[in-house]
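User: My instructor asked us to take a sequence, write out its structure as tokens, and then describe one feature of it. I'm not sure where to start. Here is the sequence I was given:
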Amino acid sequence: MLFNSLQFLLFFVVVTLAYYSLPWRGRWVLLLLASCYFYMVFKPAYILILFLTIVIDYYAGIWLEKTPVGPRRKWLLIISLVSNIGILAFFKYFGFFTDTAVWLLDQIGLDGPAQTFNNLAIRLLNKVLSFFGQQSATSFSIVDTILPIGLSFHTFQAMSYTIEVYRGHQKAEKHFGIYALYVMFYPQLVAGPIERPQNVLHQYHTYFHYDFENLKAGLMQMAFGFFKKVVIADRMGMIVGAAYENPAEQSGLTLLVATLAFTIQIYCDFSGYSDIAIGAARTMGFTLMDNFRTPYFSRSITEFWRRWHISLSTWFRDYLYIPLGGNRVSPGRRYLNVFIVFLVSGLWHGASWNYVIWGGLHGAYQLMAGWRDRALDRAGIRFPEESKVWQLIQVILTFILVMFTWVFFRNHKAPVENAFLIIGKMIRAPFSGPLQTPLNTNELWFCVLLVAVLFWKEKFYLTIPTRNTLVFFLIFPLICFLSYLFGVFTSNQFIYFQF
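Assistant: Let's start with the prediction itself. The structure tokens for your sequence are:
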């Protein structure tokens, strides 16, 4: 179910009203059933995959807690993680890894084994397709159509539970319905935030009394999320789609403007989703973690990742970077750890070399920044960190570096060569040729105004004094009206739904 749909608005109102009319025992049942319905709207059969991981991890958590420290306990964790990663790998990376393996076999002259391997993989894929009622396939392109929506998000959330139980930071959840709700809670089921069990599990056991202040704050955050999605992100998407559909025929200026537009689009799209999710949860009393903190005001790539998709970046920090050794190892090993994390992060986003390159570039940025800082320290060079001008320069440079990596991210369904073509045109001739967009001049200036307002007000919108009821009843309807008046309503799903 899309957040930016009338169906969701009706769903949200009905579920929230029903939630406050029920005792605790009825509330968790309502939320679990509502979450199942919310997910099954996309494709009902996918709920079986989600249910399978829930059952595995529920019992794994209980057995982990009962098992004393030792090899058996470690194997229980491994079984849980392998089952989760295995399901994710099959549905998200089966075609990608198979195509890569076939290509490698071809390159070393093993054409026969390559074809045999490919045929076996196609047969396995068709077995799965038949289960989901899909027609047989002759290539792996069909895998994208059977990818359960939001699989990466709820897989990582489920894995965080068993890891925390294994580490002794979280008691195993004995209530099956509550554990299922932890994985399936509808506001953050499809695209996060990726929560930790110690942050939210206890909340599902809590009876939240109706709080008008929470309701106002939640609705206000949802309103800003809708505005960012339908007014800004989807309008920018019109510019991006037209330019990236056939970059070979576009001018350098058109591609530069489109890339800048995508930089704004993906932020407003994803942070808009997070705002709606966090706000919807807050109206019922639940507190979800912040997922964005004005990332485009960052002064370095490291700071950017502390402020962008926070729930994912902290997940990789705690469950991959630190176990690899983190900062406790030599500088060379630390740089390698950072690079591995960003490569895996790129692959997490999708089965495409474009995503891997996107993650690799962010890892390379971090490595180069580390080498630069060490060289400057040895040379005794210090920059005027307190200077506002220098801070602004840092923000602009970081923004540009991030913007160029988005070219690969947006190009994920096209060959890698397309991304290099786009970057080449932007660098060689950034202002050559006419600007071609589906928007007229007035609409383009309106986009500029929207971006200016976003950058100006983004830091402050969550501090709007919703406790002042008069202010709330003035601003909330105004934002809703502006979203309806200027919104682009073409059933555009959120970008991160594909992950």
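For the description part of your assignment, you could build on this observation: The chain has two domains: 6-207, 213-498. Try explaining in your own words what that tells you about the chain.
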